[in-house]
Amino acid sequence: MLLGVIADDFTGATDIAGMLAQSGMRVTIRTDLRHPPTADSDAVVIALKSRTNPPQQAVRDSLAALEWLQDHGALRYYFKYCSTFDSSPRGNIGPVAEALLQALDADFAIACPALPDNGRTVYQGHLFVGTELLSDSGMRDHPLTPMRDANLVRVLQAQSHGKVGLLSRATVSQGAAAIRAECVRLRDGQYRFAIADALDNADLFALAEACAEHPLLTGGSGLALGLPAAYAARRWFQPAVAAGPWPPADGAAAVLAGSCSQATQRQVRHWIAADRPAWRLDPLRLAAGQTGAGEALDWAAAQRQPVLIYASAPPEDVAAAQLALGPERAGQLVEACLADIARGLAAAGVRRLVVAGGETSGAVVQALGAETLRVGLAICPGVPWTQAEGRPLWLALKSGNFGADDFFSTALGGSY
């Protein structure tokens, strides 16, 4: 194993795994650390469910993942978080990154959430989603991690004890040598982190080349695009054939959506507008015991085509449920129900599952007991198909913010 990745949610794990695999790294995703990695992996991605945990728990989980990776021989490390820098004012990106730096006896790391292929760019330390500042995008109303400040230097500084600086586009655009020199200057100036500007993939490749030898990298999946080439240039590994060639098997399919992001809501509306079967979960009805997994499974069994079961809802409905139940309980009710539904669908013979939302994906994968995922073909940037090792079960774990409006039908091939 060359690279060990610690991802703070399951969709983030598949996102970065797909980026590495498409450039020739042999990648596996682990959701359970009780067993050693397979011998043929250049990179192992550990999928945690720590993005919305209390910071102390997120730090403990991340350090345990780091220890496992160290014990199994990883040479470089990567802390993967969302390209929209999902985080509350108290963490978890800053506390986890600082704990990992300390554990690795390192003194500096860049923070690069940019993913231009999906419209996430950073300029002068400010994160943009398409043409909007992060604080003006749909992330402003995220039910768990609302992002109302696009200045990532300020956001990360509020979460960190050490100083946070900026690796500006003026430097990044000059290439790897200029980036290396600026990183040395920042480190000598006692900066612990630097937010890295990036407007396109060329910037990401330059950052990857300049920082490939850093003990720890932190960022979204975009920075990983250039890492295999940087590692291969150093003769640290030999690129393999890009991810694949297997496609998901034919067979029964379903979509489970827990994300309330604007992108997922559009995808749900697109599915319903095409007159495809859809079943909505309401957390208020779940709390009252008026419905549950059994009713959804009975309904799904009566359909003759792929189904969508969703809890995605607009901000006002989410706010009403959170007011009545509390944010934590509302989320837990939906996650637990979707996990039960996933188990029931798999038992009934469903072999392809598309899952929307990081928290939902974590609950589903854990419920299905999928300890190791093999990475296959990409559906769109950031979303590959994965296969549960040793089982005829294929999973597409989608960040709520990713994908075009027709993502669900595209993922399933539209052959129904």
Molecular structure report:
With 416 residues, the chain is α/β, with parallel strands linked by helices. It has 2 domains: 3-233, Rossmann fold, CATH 3.40.50; 253-411, 3-Layer(aba) Sandwich (Molybdenum Cofactor Biosythetic Enzyme, Chain A). Helices cover 38% and strands 20% of the residues. The chain is built from 15 helices and 18 strands. It has helices at residues 10-22, 55-71, 93-103, 152-159, 169-172, 176-188, 201-211, 227-233, 262-273, 283-287, 293-301, 315-325, 327-347, 358-368, 407-411, and strands spanning 3-7, 27-30, 43-47, 76-80, 109-112, 120-123, 126-129, 132-133, 163-167, 191-196, 216-219, 253-257, 278-280, 307-310, 352-356, 372-380, 383-388, 394-398. A 15-stranded mixed beta sheet has the order 9-10-5-11-4-1-3-2-16-17-18-15-12-14-13, sandwiched between helices. Strand 7 (126-129) and strand 8 form a beta hairpin. The radius of gyration is 20 Å and the shape is globular. It starts with a strand and ends in a 5-residue tail after the last helix.
The CATH architecture of the largest domain would be 3-Layer(aba) Sandwich
Taken together, the total number of domains comes to: 2
Judged by helices, strands and strand pairing, the structural class is: alpha/beta
CATH superfamily of the largest domain: Putative sugar-binding, N-terminal domain
CATH topology label of the largest domain: Rossmann fold
- Order the strands across the largest sheet as they lie in space: 9-10-5-11-4-1-3-2-16-17-18-15-12-14-13
**How many H/I helices?**
15
Query: What is the global morphology?
Result: globular
Strand content: 15-25%
As a whole number of angstroms, the C-alpha radius of gyration is: 20 Å
Oligomerization status of the protein chains: single chain
The span between the termini is 41 Å
The counted number of beta strands is 18
CATH class of the largest domain: Alpha Beta
